[in-house]
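Troubleshooting log. The previous structure file for this entry was overwritten by mistake, so regenerating from the original sequence record. Sequence copied from the archived sheet and checked twice against the printout by T.R.
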Amino acid sequence: MRMDDLETKKLRDSLVEYEGYLREMRQVTLKNVETLDAIQRYTDKSAAGMQKLAEQSLDGIQKVTAESAGGLRRIIETGTSNLSRMTDAGEENLNRTAQECMIRLKGSAEAALSQIAAAQEKNLETAAAVEKIERAILEHMESVKDLMKQSDDFTHRENVKVYRNVQAVVVDEVKKQTEAMAAQKDELAAQNETLQKQNKGLKPLMIVTLLAAATNIALLVCQIAGVF
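Regenerated output below.
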């Protein structure tokens, strides 16, 4: 097998291997796109769930506040009723009842504030978790984008490399063919020149031969005609 055939076969094998790499890169790119779609769907779903949770937490806070306010009103009404009934019981009983009412009011208010603070803290934790998830998703998306860009750059470099290799092989082959044609042209020119020189030497001999043949034919005709 000639060197040209070996180079052509090697180039063909390289192109087949390169096409295999391109197919694998396209499959990886498609998987990355599917991953981005799944992440986007998960982000939308998570955002909707977090919004629903925040709304439920806000409703819970409002409910606790309303219940606390109702409890406070009931306690105040109870205290007022007790104060009205105990007016005749003396100043000491009145002060004790008022103090008990204040203690109950304070305890109820502190319990309500604790529940509100706990709900707010839970909302803050939920918001922090959502923000952390969003940052992680954005970082992953940036990583995927960088990977896809690197894949595109690699594909471009490989395409340029293959093009240059093919171009070099084609140019080299054209050069070889041109040199071969030039050599054949010189060889044909030399052969033509040799034939022309040979023809110049044979021309007088051919003339003498033709004259001798014509003379023989003339003598034969004369003999047949009875001239001799």
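Helices lie at 3-85, 91-225. Archived copy saved in two places this time.
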